[in-house]
Design a protein that fits this description.
single chain; 9 helices
């Protein structure tokens, strides 16, 4: 199922939640809507679901597989929706929760009991919860509840699967495990999916493409690799991970005036005890963090700023670097942006 959104706007009183958003979600892909609170991502998801309607403006359209649908007729949307807080029926077992959408269909399109049982059993296998089909939601962990909620959404064989911060209520380790599980499940059942998240790592890990939103508008669309390595704005770069900010004077006259900002991620910097011949920023080591996949060296520069440099453990071990030492930070790779912004 292909989703086409054209010139979608939505206002609430004097607040513009969405402003002229156009977007295409290709058949079978998993697209993440990523942005800070208030960026419009959940409003856009609700409009796709038919739970909300866009403002009536010229050119505003929603198309499924090229066919325009009535934006005020939710039943036409045929979506499965997974919420952050599960929304499972407490008095129903896992099996009955998954079967619910199949049982409430109109009689003329409802499956037989044998077919419903077969479908639910198939989904229990996919979510790896066959052994607890008879349990109730209160007897499940948060991760298990979210998997049941996802199976219930898939049971009706939706044309589109929508996920609104599905792992937001879970702890970090469970979220990490479920992200990998969701990506594997999506590869097995390639239903067109739209995921809302404010978790950058989550979007980069599970999505085929990422839509980065800010202030009700689309800031950039691309694969995880494209938006991370080739950000189109300072906002996108800053939002997708830790960034060190330098002023233009560090790069010399060729960069531009003092308003120019040079940004580099921690792994794009190098730090050493030798001054060398290439341009460098002088500073003093404030803190060294060795716990983790890489070593993080925090440096207070002579300009009064703090930068963080990441390096491999083996390189750090051979450097002899220690807190309090004078060091020199060099930029291996950086991006220059002229604009200022505010979230």
């Amino acid at each position: 199922m292909n989703i086409g959104l054209e010139h979608i706007s939505r206002s609430f009183g004097g607040f513009n939640a969405l402003e002229d958003v156009s977007l295409e979600v290709r058949e079978g892909e998993l697209v993440a809507l990523l942005g800070p609170s208030g960026s419009g991502k959940t409003t856009l998801l609700r409009i796709i679901a038919g739970l909300d309607a866009p403002d009536e403006r010229p050119g505003a359209r929603i198309r499924f597989d090229g066919e325009e649908i009535d934006i005020r007729a939710p039943r036409q949307h045929q979506v499965g929706f997974v919420f952050q807080h599960y929304a499972l029926f407490r008095t129903m077992t896992v099996f009955e929760n998954i079967a619910f959408g199949l049982r409430v269909k109109p009689r003329k399109v409802r499956r037989s009991e044998a077919e419903i049982k077969s479908r639910v059993t198939e989904l229990l296998g996919l979510i790896q919860l066959e052994s607890i089909a008879g349990r109730y939601p209160s007897q499940l962990s948060g991760g298990q509840r979210q998997r049941v909620a996802l199976a219930r959404a898939l049971a009706i064989e939706p044309r589109i699967l929508l996920l609104d911060e599905p792992f937001g209520a879970l702890d970090a380790k469970v979220r990490q495990d479920l992200r990998r599980w969701l990506r594997n499940l999506h590869d097995k059942i390639p239903v067109t999916s739209v995921l809302v998240t404010h978790d950058q790592e989550e979007a980069l890990e599970v999505a085929d493409r990422i839509v980065i939103m800010r202030g009700g508008k689309v800031e950039q669309v691309g694969t995880p690799e494209e938006v991370f390595h080739n950000p189109k704005s300072a906002f996108v770069m800053d939002f997708l991970g830790n960034v060190n900010l330098f002023h233009a004077r560090l790069e010399g006259d060729a960069v531009g005036d003092a308003k120019t900002q040079v940004r580099a991620r921690p792994h794009e910097l190098d730090v050493s005890r030798e001054e060398g011949t290439s341009p460098a920023v002088k500073g003093k080591v404030k803190r060294i963090q060795t716990a983790g996949a890489v070593v993080k060296v925090e440096v207070a520069t002579d300009e009064g700023e703090t930068v963080v440099v990441e390096m491999a453990h083996d390189r750090f071990s051979g450097s002899g670097m220690a807190a309090g030492e004078v060091v020199f930070v060099r930029v291996k790779e950086a991006r220059v942006f002229m604009e200022d912004y505010s979230i």
